[in-house]
Design brief:
binds nicotinamide-adenine-dinucleotide
């Protein structure tokens, strides 16, 4: 809503469905996106994305994933959100853009990671790439809005909650995140 300014009717893809990507999906829904294509390597995450409002789901591990998304969306999406923190996911996001489309990436891969861009394709198809840090959030402005949307049932962030754990189990909690078994966990003191 802030970085990309998705408009009602836009076609959106979210690549990577952890807490960040699923929040992006909820934002795309609020912004009125017409199609929300969810992409991950985990079929479990794709199932959760459907429950949260994804209209289409694709497994990034399928070799024909980019081709299938372009076919399903009539040439590609207006916005592809790279939310995995992986250079591969950035590449896929660029591949599934329609002409004039934008990739917005919030992923943070290892600091030395680089991506080799096809320069003439970027120009010929008028694509754009933009980074997003903390969703370009202005807390004083946005947090009250998030709270109000939550109260109205329009921002169901508790659906991202995978459980509660005591501080003593924090290491097991990190393992669950790394195994893609959890979306978001609450540490109870
Ligand atoms: N920009 C910011 O302000 C900000 C804030 C918090 C986190 N992050 C970064 O955002 C990224 C996501 O964070 P998270 O907490 O949701 O992570 P996560 O590990 O919970 O989720 C990542 C998801 O991406 C999927 N994935 C991995 N490789 C993929 C690929 N090639 N194609 C499709 N899906 C793929 C995984 O299966 C997983 O479901 C991380 O890189 C994190 O560091 C950025």
């Amino acid at each position: 809503m802030n970085t990309a300014n998705v408009r009602p009717g836009d076609m959106v893809a979210v690549v990577g469905l952890g807490g960040v990507g699923l929040s992006c999906l909820l934002g795309a829904r609020l912004a009125g996106a017409q199609r929300i294509v969810a992409v991950d390597l985990s079929d479990e995450k794709l199932g959760l994305a459907r429950q949260l409002g994804a209209t289409d789901t694709f497994n990034a591990g399928d070799p024909g994933c980019a081709r299938d998304i372009r076919a399903a969306t009539g040439g590609g999406v207006d916005f592809a959100f790279e939310m995995a923190g992986s250079v591969k996911a950035l590449g896929l996001s660029l591949e599934i853009l329609d002409r004039g489309g934008s990739v917005v990436t919030a992923g943070l891969p290892p600091a030395a990671a680089t991506y080799a861009l096809n320069h003439s394709n970027l120009v010929g198809d008028e694509k754009a790439i933009r980074g997003s840090y903390m969703g370009s959030c202005v807390p004083e402005r946005d947090v009250p809005v998030f709270i109000e949307l939550y109260k109205q049932g329009r921002l169901p962030i508790d659906r991202l909650r995978s459980g509660t754990l005591p501080l003593a189990d924090i290491n097991a909690g990190f393992d669950r995140l790394a195994d893609v078994a959890a979306v978001r966990q609450i540490v109870a003191f």
